[in-house]
Amino acid sequence: FHLIGYGRSPMSDDAFRDSMGKAVAEHSRRTLEDGLWSRMAPNLRYHAGPYDDLASFESLAKIIDEIEHAAGCETQCLFYVSTPPSVFKPILENLGNSGLARRHRRTPFASKVVVEKPFGRDLTSARELNAVINRRFDESQVFRIDHYLGKETVQSLLVQRFANSIFEPVWNRNYVSCVQVTVAEDLGVGSRGGYYNRSGALRDMIQNHVMQLLALTAMEPPSSLDPEAIRDEKVKALKAIRPLDLDGDDSDVVRACYREGLVGGEKAQGYLEEEGIPEDSGTETYAALRLSLDNWRWKGVPFYIRSGKRMARKVSEIAVLFRRPPAILFSEGDRYDVSPNCLVLRI
To answer: Which one of 71, 80, 204, 273 is CB 3.0 to 4.6 Å from 199, fit for a cystine?
Structure first.
């Protein structure tokens, strides 16, 4: 296993190894084993270069060839692109022009590319990015990922739904009153003001993390655990979403941004006072949507999805609110306050 870091800032291999060692020690759930790290560290190195410079990618290709020659066997390259969306295109183009995308193509050692969210800024830019990817890579080489799906609770959601006979029979319009998906943060934008002002809550959280949670909650059972089978059912659920009504007093969308206030008893500045935020910014830091799925399972059941910064507490959860039973035995409101059952899945 070899890891090559690529970035614009100059850095020595030793400095890169040191920073990686500190990061693993700080964030790993297991204690860093000195013996294991000492064997792995020599295989870490750093390569500096611009994202739009073909020569830098060609020199990277030579380094990879040297590693493969020293190993004495074919090696597979995995290019993990976690960068600002504005440089996705030159990176992918140079991976293609340098020959890195074609390494061992159509063999078990074919190169792979992983593209992190956000995947473009809108439909047009997403299609342009897809065109670049398809021009340089076969679809089997490409992974478009949302790191939120790596959370253990998210991965177990399918098990909770489809492996429990107590849940699946009541997971529909006959028993469910509404579904609420919430991803709330108690922090402000901090040092990410420049990036956040170009995206906002809708692009930063709603259209990726929150929509993935909605799809997993609303989808039909897949025919298998094959990734394509799960993807197809998620797509069906998303296609069933009715177009949003943005007019009138009962709009399906609410947008807002946080103002100056108190957090933990201490003063916190408003969004427009944050560093890097223009005074006339119209970017939202909170967004809430009411969605309706026009399919057999969920017809008439509203899905409320929301995400925001500077909320009262940090929480990520899916709340399934069930319908009330007929008010016969406990209909005396002054004596009984019977709330509907609510299943809450914390992420």
So the answer is: 204
